């Protein structure tokens, strides 16, 4: 007999431990997601059946949550790592569920987090190529865990967002805000966005060589220009 997960209990636990949003989606759905088109299947642990997606609100007035540098990446990622570390023993001991905490990067064994977050009902993919939630706009950071049980449905902690179209009727200030014109063709151009990322990394390296913090402070122009969720994504 197939045993399903007590989703409501798991999502509530994740939020109590520090996640702002949490949702679940089947592994097979992530494998069929748009980002996987033309790619080899992801190498995930055998037995993985569901993806638990954890989201952390990133308020505009807390930019340091996404400053990259040191062990564990960014402070925001380290918060999500702590949530995952606390969830793993609870899942195993209280629910008998095996869990695997995934790294951020796909090339290091992770998954496509934006696809997973959308499929888990936590938001919609916006014109700025970011996951936009009704509550926090695109000002969120993501992490994923794998579970060895089937999820009963691909819904998020606040219900499915298939009705949510964040860019309908919007003047697209995100496109105007981009420093590299990544939307000049009318669609997102990753190479232009990466150009800005490289400049941010070079600036951080130069600062480090002068005895400053050397942290990479990646551009958030399109993210902060988005009006959805208010200009400041405050934690609940």
List keywords for this structure.
236 residues; alpha+beta; NADH Oxidase; 2 domains; four-stranded antiparallel β-sheet; two-stranded antiparallel ribbon; 8 strands; disordered C terminus
Describe the structure.
The longest helix has 21 residues, at 75-95. A hairpin with a 5-residue loop joins strand 5 and strand 6. This protein folds into 2 domains: 7-147, NADH Oxidase; 173-225, no CATH class. Helix content is 31%, strand content 14%. The termini are far apart. It is globular and about 50 Å long. It has helices at 7-16, 27-31, 75-95, 113-119, 173-177, 190-209, 221-225, and strands at 21-26, 50-57, 67-68, 99-101, 124-125, 131-132, 140-147, 216-217. The chain has 236 residues and is of the alpha+beta class. It has a 4-stranded antiparallel β-sheet with strand order 1-2-7-4, with helices on both faces. The chain has a two-stranded antiparallel ribbon with strand order 3-8.
């Amino acid at each position: 007999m197939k045993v399903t997960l007590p989703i409501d209990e798991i999502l509530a636990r994740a939020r109590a431990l520090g996640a702002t949003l949490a949702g679940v989606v089947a592994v097979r759905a992530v494998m069929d997601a748009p980002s996987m088109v033309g790619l080899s299947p992801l190498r995930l642990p055998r037995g993985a059946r569901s993806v638990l997606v954890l989201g952390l609100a990133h308020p505009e007035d807390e930019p340091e949550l996404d400053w990259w540098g040191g062990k564990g990446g960014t402070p925001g990622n380290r918060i999500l790592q702590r949530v995952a570390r606390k969830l793993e023993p609870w899942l195993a001991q209280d629910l008998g569920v095996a869990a695997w905490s995934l790294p951020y990067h796909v090339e290091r064994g992770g998954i496509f987090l934006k696809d997973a977050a959308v499929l888990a009902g936590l938001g919609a993919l916006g014109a700025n190529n970011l996951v936009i939630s009704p509550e926090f706009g695109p000002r969120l950071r993501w992490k994923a865990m794998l579970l060895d049980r089937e999820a009963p449905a691909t819904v998020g902690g606040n219900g499915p967002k298939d009705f949510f179209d964040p860019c309908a009727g919007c003047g697209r200030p995100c496109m105007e805000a981009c420093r590299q014109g990544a939307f000049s063709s009318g669609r997102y151009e990753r190479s232009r966005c990466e150009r800005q990322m490289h400049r941010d990394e070079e600036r951080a390296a130069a600062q480090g060589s002068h005895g400053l913090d050397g942290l990479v402070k990646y551009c958030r122009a399109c993210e902060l220009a988005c009006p959805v969720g208010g200009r400041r994504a405050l934690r609940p």
